[in-house]
Amino acid sequence: SNLESNLECNLEFNLESNLESNLESNLECNLEFNLESNLESNLESN
């Protein structure tokens, strides 16, 4: 039915956009974490 296919489309769209935004924020977190820890270890080694 129409309703069913709309629901499927919405679900798929929402899943994809959630995935995308989660990946993006994970990347940002990882970047920040890595920068901080690299900085820290560079300071320690100097």
**What are the low-pLDDT stretches, counting only 5+ consecutive residues below 50?**
none
* Beta-strand residue fraction: under 5%
Overall shape: it is: rod-shaped
Please state the oligomeric state of the protein chains shown. single chain
Arithmetic mean of pLDDT: 98
Q: Would you tell me the structural class of the helices and strands?
A: mainly alpha
Q: Count the DSSP helices.
A: 1
Number of domains: 1
**Helix residue percentage:** over 70%
Order of helices and strands: H
Largest sheet: none
- Count of beta strands: 0
Gyration radius, rounded? 20 Å
- How far apart the termini lie comes to 67 Å
Topology, please?
Elements (H helix, E strand, L loop, with lengths): L1 H44 L1
Report on this model:
There is one protein chain. With 46 residues, this protein is an all-alpha fold. It has one domain. It has one helix and no strands. The chain has one helix spanning 2-45. The radius of gyration is 20 Å and the shape is rod-shaped. It starts with a helix and ends with a helix.
